[in-house]
């Protein structure tokens, strides 16, 4: 729109055209105010009924809330106005009139349940505190990309329609691909590994993953954003260092660049970037700590995965981001390398927020024979993965990496109760549109 001024830039003495949504109309009798909202903020438009053209007053005050309008007029200082300035209109143009029946109140005066909000995201994101989540999400992605750049990574994009799954057979979404069986990819795992053996060596990808999760929970999505890292000539400890750097950078970016958004969410005082090294507990230490609390009905034994309850108990004990290392080989996938001196123990690790798992990773099995054996042990047909395994015959360096759940990072960072709040249009068991 030609000559449009953002409300935040409207300064006393200027003649401006501001455009946006009718946030509120307050009619006090002789004087009335229309609050116009755009992406940068709000501005008051003043109507003095006796002193203004009747048509102008009528247009300005009869317009429905949330209609899109533009207003041209002079900006003046006005201490009583919410932002200290107001516009005295010369003309008001109703560009797109809103229906008086709104499915959701963007002024936030009437609360809406999450499903109603998700069905009406356009209106929902007119609220400052909801918009703030997605501005922060964008900042997280910017900071994460910057952190990967500092680590000399190359950004890659790998296919989302694939012939095989990697993270366990039950969670795949099958599709038909020109008459052939295919799946939505659960993880870029195999592709990112193939690229560390290429001339790229160190890569990252930020992209969707698809999982037909069995349960509907506040921390699982059926389409999530995975932040994946993989590097040649890294072991699991170096991969953990990179993970710390990326997660800390995300927090720092938000602390530096999202003060207004944190205020909109009421988090300006409590938001803190995690500092220093995250504690690294072995799986055995973790079991001991959990069992020592006596809070689980049954103590955990070697080989058990950590239940949600166990994660919470441990999170309470540790109280900050931490790693769990040295997991039993039997509960880690085929591509995770075992320790050379003890093949019962893997180099796999998880990185945890006190409330949930954020990352899985590890050093990878790069030796062809061991890799093929691992497939057979997990009941997978190595032939179906030949496109992957054969590259391990032509010079595959030792390597390590991890996958970080983007929405879980944002959810835990902002203390959101439901992961769906961190996604514009979440996919879950009940939700396929919008
Ligand atoms: P003014 O100070 O403009 O002469 P007023 O005393 O004539 O205002 P009204 O015009 O009836 O009173 O205004 C009603 C209410 O609106 C008052 O409480 C006044 O303080 C408030 N008000 C008037 N102008 C503004 C403004 N530009 N911004 C915010 N509030 C205003
Ligand atoms: P994993 O399966 O543990 O590991 O996934 C990595 C991280 O992705 C996030 N995540 C999810 N977030 C929301 N909804 C889901 N349904 C969901 N599933 C996973 C979690 C999890 O920690 N290939 C390995 C990674 C690697 O080793 O590099 C993998 O996919 O935050």
From TrEMBL:
Its cofactor is Mg(2+). GO terms for biological process: aspartyl-tRNA aminoacylation. Mg(2+) 3 binds at residue 357. It catalyses: tRNA(Asx) + L-aspartate + ATP = L-aspartyl-tRNA(Asx) + AMP + diphosphate. L-aspartate binds at residues 167, 211, 360, 364. Gene3D superfamilies: Bira Bifunctional Protein, Domain 2, Nucleic acid-binding proteins. Mg(2+) 2 binds at residues 357, 360. It is found in: Cytoplasm. Keywords: Aminoacyl-tRNA synthetase, ATP-binding, Cytoplasm, Ligase, Magnesium, Metal-binding, Nucleotide-binding, Protein biosynthesis. It comes from the Archaea. The record marks 82 as: Important for tRNA non-discrimination. One of its GO terms (molecular function) is RNA binding. ATP binds at residues 211-213, 219-221, 357, 405-408. Residues 99-434 form the Aminoacyl-transfer RNA synthetases class-II family profile domain. The keyword Isomerase does not apply. The keyword Cytoplasm applies. InterPro entries: Aa-tRNA-synt_II, aa-tRNA-synth_II, aa-tRNA-synth_II/BPL/LPL, Asp-tRNA_synthase_2, Asp/Asn-tRNA-synth_IIb, NA-bd_OB-fold, NA-bd_OB_tRNA. Its main location: cytoplasm. Its EC number is 6.1.1.23. Residues 189-192 are annotated as: Aspartate. PROSITE patterns: AA_TRNA_LIGASE_II. Belongs to the class-II aminoacyl-tRNA synthetase family. Type 2 subfamily. NCBIfam families: aspS_nondisc, PRK05159.1. Aspartyl-tRNA synthetase with relaxed tRNA specificity since it is able to aspartylate not only its cognate tRNA(Asp) but also tRNA(Asn). Reaction proceeds in two steps: L-aspartate is first activated by ATP to form Asp-AMP and then transferred to the acceptor end of tRNA(Asp/Asn). Homodimer. This is Aspartate--tRNA(Asp/Asn) ligase. It comes from Haloarcula mannanilytica. The gene is aspS.
């Amino acid at each position: 729109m030609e000559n449009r001024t953002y409300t935040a830039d409207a300064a006393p003495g200027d003649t401006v055209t501001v455009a946006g949504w009718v946030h509120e109309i307050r009619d006090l009798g002789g004087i009335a105010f229309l609050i116009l909202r755009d992406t940068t903020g709000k501005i008051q438009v003043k109507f003095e009924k006796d002193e203004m053209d009747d048509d102008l007053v009528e247009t300005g005050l009869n317009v429905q809330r949330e209609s899109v309008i533009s207003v041209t007029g002079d900006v003046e200082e006005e201490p009583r106005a919410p932002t200290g300035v107001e516009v005295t209109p010369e003309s008001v143009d109703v560009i797109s009139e809103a229906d008086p029946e709104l499915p959701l109140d963007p002024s936030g005066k009437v609360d809406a349940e999450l499903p109603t909000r998700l069905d009406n995201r356009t209106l929902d994101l007119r609220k400052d505190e909801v918009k703030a989540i997605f501005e922060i999400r964008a900042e997280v992605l910017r900071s994460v990309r910057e952190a990967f750049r500092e680590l000399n990574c190359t950004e890659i994009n790998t296919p989302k329609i694939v012939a095989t799954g990697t993270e366990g057979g039950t969670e795949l979404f099958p599709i038909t691909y020109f008459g052939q069986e295919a799946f939505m990819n659960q993880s870029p795992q195999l592709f990112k590994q193939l690229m560390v053996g290429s001339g790229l060596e160190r890569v990252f990808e930020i992209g969707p993953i698809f999982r037909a999760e069995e349960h509907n929970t506040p921390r699982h999505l059926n389409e999530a954003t995975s932040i994946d890292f993989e590097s040649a000539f890294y072991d699991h400890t170096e991969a953990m260092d990179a993970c710390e750097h990326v997660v800390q950078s995300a927090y720092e970016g938000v602390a530096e660049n999202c003060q207004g958004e944190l205020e909109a969410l009421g988090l300006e005082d409590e938001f803190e970037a995690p500092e220093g090294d995250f504690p690294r507990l072995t799986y055995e230490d973790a079991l001991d700590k959990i069992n020592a609390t006596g809070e689980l009905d049954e103590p955990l034994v070697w080989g058990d995965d950590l239940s949600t309850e166990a994660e919470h108990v441990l999170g309470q004990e540790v109280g900050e981001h931490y790693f769990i290392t040295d997991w039993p080989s039997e509960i880690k996938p085929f591509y995770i390398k075992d320790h050379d001196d003890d093949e019962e123990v893997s180099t796999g690790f998880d990185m945890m927020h006190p409330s949930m798992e954020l990352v899985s990773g590890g050093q990878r099995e790069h030796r062809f024979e061991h890799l093929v054996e691992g497939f057979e042990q997990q009941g997978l047909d190595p032939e179906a993965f030949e496109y992957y395994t054969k590259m391990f015959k032509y010079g595959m360096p030792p390597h390590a990496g991890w996958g970080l759940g983007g929405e879980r990072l944002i959810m835990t960072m902002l203390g959101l109760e439901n992961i769906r709040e961190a996604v514009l249009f979440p996919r879950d068991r009940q939700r396929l549109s919008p």
